[in-house]
Amino acid sequence: MSQTYSVEINHQGTTQTIQVAEDRTILDAARDAGVDLPFSCSAGVCTTCAAQITEGKVEQSEGMGLSPDLQAEGYALLCVSYPRSDIKLESNKEEIVYDRQFGQPS
């Protein structure tokens, strides 16, 4: 039997809490719960589903679209993020992640 964690999602000014099993991605569980989070490739390659984890830990080893530096700062791609603790996150971080990862240095 898999562990289930509480995931608090702050999305567009609304906060919702869902339960996510450790063997499900946060994006899949959120969509099943009716939380309309942005996503595109669902393979951890693009940055559409980027979020910032403000509390807790995720496992996202399948994600290639996020540098280790950004992961260390708490950014995650929700399509490949599996909860490893109770989590609080802020969605809609695509622009920040994309600019920081692919933008031109000033």
UniProtKB/TrEMBL annotation:
Family of this protein: Belongs to the 2Fe2S plant-type ferredoxin family.
Cofactor field: [2Fe-2S] cluster
Protein name: Ferredoxin-2
Superkingdom as given in the UniProt entry: Bacteria
UniProt key word Iron: yes
Any GO molecular function: metal ion binding
Pfam families referenced in this protein's UniProt entry, alphabetically: Fer2
Transmembrane segments: none
Record domain 2Fe-2S ferredoxin-type: where: 5-95
Entry keywords, A to Z: 2Fe-2S, Electron transport, Iron, Iron-sulfur, Metal-binding, Transport
One of the protein's GO biological processes: electron transport chain
Native organism: Hyella patelloides LEGE 07179
InterPro entries for the chain: 2Fe-2S_ferredoxin-like_sf, 2Fe-2S_ferredoxin-type, 2Fe2S_fd_BS, Beta-grasp_dom_sf, Fd_pln
Cross-referenced PANTHER family: FERREDOXIN (PTHR43112), FERREDOXIN C 2, CHLOROPLASTIC (PTHR43112:SF10)
Gene that produces this protein: petF
Residues annotated as signal peptide: none
